[in-house]
Amino acid sequence: MLVDNIGELVTNTDGAGGPLGIRRDAALLVEDGQVAWIGPARDAPAADRRIDADGAAVLPGFVDSHAHLVFAGDRAAEFAARMAGQPYTGGGIRTTVGATRAAADDELRATVRRLREEALRQGTTTIEIKSGYGLTVADEARSLRIAAEFSEDTTFLGAHVVPAEYADRPDDYVGMVCGPMLAAAAPHARWIDVFCERGAFDVDHARAILACGQAVGLGVRVHANQLGPGPGVQLGVELGAASVDHCTHLSDADVDALASTTIGCMCADGRHTSTVATLLPGAEFSTRSPYPDARRLLDAGVTVALATDCNPGSSYTSSMPFCIALAVREMRMTPAEAVWAATAGGARALRRDDVGVLRPGARADLIVLDAPSHLHLAYRPGVPLIRQVLQNGVPQCRS
Ligand code: NIG
Ligand code: FE
Questions:
Q1: Exposed (0-12), middle (13-18) or buried (19+): which is 106, by Cβ within 10 Å?
Q2: Ligand 1 mean position to 370 CA, how many Å?
């Protein structure tokens, strides 16, 4: 299949065309689910089928590297209370834990499917999915089993909060997470994550849990420095985390630690091993909190990703275009930086080189915009600009 007549093609490959590797008047050939060729439209090879982009912009599909999709119920009333002045504390997580434990498998599966399809219609072709609203051995294992039906990038977040039944014995809960819960979860997970924050898990518990996950082959990610300053970011760097997420309250030492991971971060095989700062502006929007200082991170040389944090408490959006618009308007990212962070940045946060980029051999995950340029994603906030989505080279339903 040939995607032809592309006015602006964002490739995210090095070379000419700035950081987004933009090519004008281009065409792209898809074969067996992969990008087979990219070049000037006038040199386009023949193909069985053709999509006419009609001069529009074509980008890699969005890579949403942080989402909590396995849950039941919603917390709209908590949102309304926040908008009337209540602060966000994370305490509402236990409300969702109760609803999730009570839900049947098919109810959870239907919610994940609904949100996955909602995200796909908005251009998200890769999405990470966390557990974290089960918090028993059986409920974490089933959350991950269901998540794995929808994503290759599943994350065990048994250490989201200490559930109510363990409130006065957190050491016992940590022992359980590292023991039977990890054993049941690991076969269905690629990653392990901990909410390292006052009121959730302290640095010693977080380190112990992440180290247990690493020992059974899971990659590390951390919810860090969301609600206040803390040790989470530096713990992530210490453990070689692929990503530290939120990064709303950072010290100079946190920024320096993240920046240090980008020095010599490319392995001989071309894979990147830096610790990415994944910013989640939907959470600050929905909790009416100050946004993270993306400019400070970028100027220090830190690799930045943008993701939705889609969850029923702090950020009930599946929209990467919304996050891009927030990042540009509220976090002083340029439109190009925000688009890179939502595509290639997300791929780095998942340590993947097959998505977030359009080059021969990459997955043919791409979006055709109803607009001539990537700039319109921030310039036209709230407007459904995703005209067409190809996932693994397969055209999805038009939105
Ligand atoms: O990433 N911070 C911890 N976890 C989620 C919030 C979960 C919730 O409020 O239900 C987050 O924001
Ligand atoms: Fe989160």
A1: exposed
A2: 33
- The C-alpha atoms of residue 198 and residue 203 are separated, in whole angstroms, by 9
195 lines ligand 1 (CB under 6 A): yes
Report residue 121 as tokens. 């219609």
Give the pLDDT band of residue 267 (cuts 50, 70, 90).
low
Residue with tokens 């890579």: 63
What is residue 312's DSSP assignment?
T
d(CA 89, CA 227): 8
Cβ(239)–Cβ(207) under 8 Å? Answer: yes
CA distance 397 to 399: 6
- pLDDT tens digits for range 157-200: 999 999 999 999 999 999 999 999 999 999 999 999 999 999 99
232 CB neighbour count, 10 Å cutoff: 29
CA distance 218 to 192: 6
Ligand 1 contact, 116 CB (< 6 A):
no
Distant-in-sequence contacts of 187-190, Cβ < 8 A, 24+ apart: 188/141, 188/144, 188/145, 188/147, 188/148, 188/154, 189/131, 189/144, 189/148, 189/154, 189/155, 189/156, 189/218, 190/152, 190/153, 190/154, 190/155, 190/218, 190/219
Within 131-242, where are the H helices?
Answer: 137-148, 170-176, 182-185, 203-215, 232-238
Indicate whether residue 314 lines ligand 1 (CB < 6 A). yes
Q: Indicate the angle between helix axes 137-148 and 93-102, nearest 10 degrees.
A: 80
